[in-house]
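> tool_call: predict_assembly(chains=two)
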Amino acid sequence: MDRLAGGDLGALELLYEQFGAMAFSIAYRITGDRSAAEDVVQDAFLGAWRNAGRYVDARGSVRTWLLSIVHHRAIDAVRRRRPTVELPDSETNLPDSLTLPDTWGDVELRLDRDEMQVALGTISVVQREAIELAYFGGLTQTEIAQKTGVPLGTVKGRLRLGLQGLRAALMPPVDGGGGGG
Amino acid sequence: MAEHTFAGLTCSDVQDLGAGFVLGALTPTESDAVRRHLAECPELHAEMAELNSVVPALFEAVEPVAPPAGLKDRILAAAAADLEARLATAQQAAAPSPAEATRPAPPARRAVPTLPVEPARGWDLGALLRRPVWAAIAAAALVAALALGAWNAQLRDEVAGLETYRNGVVQVLDAAAKPGAQLAVLADPNGAAGPTGLAAVGEDGGVAMVMRNLAPTAGSQVYEAWLIGAGQVPVAIGGFQVGGSGSASFVTAHAFLGEGVVVALTLEPQEGAKTPTMPILALGTARAAQSS
């Protein structure tokens, strides 16, 4: 990251080789359009290139940092297609996920796609749908309530219980307790 | 957990909005309020961090899709252009105006605020040194002025390096923009810090190259650039020497060696090397600079 912050193009190339395919997959999943996904990925890598100095090591891996920026910009691109939505300033705001401490470290690095699919299978269909509409559809919880025809409180509950269910499925068992909350 | 209210939200409100917050499913107004509450609230809101910890795992749920072949080169070319713009800005910011570079008066003026000298006439160092009370201060000001001069010399070196690099980047990008050109990003092959740069390999085989972070050459030493084609035999394409600026660029004609040629840089004891002297300082593979 120091090399990236210092304007090292080789470091940027390395970053792309490590995460470019994943970044494009996420951008494409959200925008549903290859051209838009390309723009998002380019925008995100250039953003990372310009703001590498703002990367805070303690808040998670470079992978999470970069892919969160990709996600943030892709959601932004999708929301810009809906002119009635209140838009954040994507240049100055970091994704909210990056403003919180990462208490789980790099657990996600040890995951693979199959494990994630299994974990998703442990939560209910409606919880999964709510999470997907929020995280990959770019809908606010109010919009999800309108789209699915359920009360806002139900959507909030589905999102919370869904995330808690995924956490329970993905968290490795910890001997000796300490995982309470 | 005690109930606090910040940014118009109670702790319970924040808990209620937590999943939406970490998933980005709140309106910007709601998100701002949660963010401000979290910043001010004495409660840890550990539930928020727990929910947030799951979010990166969602990336694993995404079906892999191969990115377009030209995307990486587009990004690198855009970054190089961005770098050029940044260097130009840094150059403007760093370049001292001639008046500022040669003016020792400000520090001395601050050091002797009550000295009865008319500012409009400037500083008479001889007169200052003749006054024993102010001699030490004036000497200190003189040292400061000399240090300022040395700093200016160093700055000029840095600016010269930035300018060389910027002009080189422009040259390389111009060459890379031509049809059939390939662009290579050069960096330490082991990922260590060191010389970095760009090289454009034209359709006719000609190479435009720019490097920075180079140690100054000494005596007959030269930096030698090499092309390694499909035959795996390194071919020397030209050498250059580097001064204190640490940056250099050059353009050379050469026969086309094919797609995906590797561009490398070594430090040779003298001109005319037929085989590269290890280690390779920087290396990059040339790839089509224009996506189809």
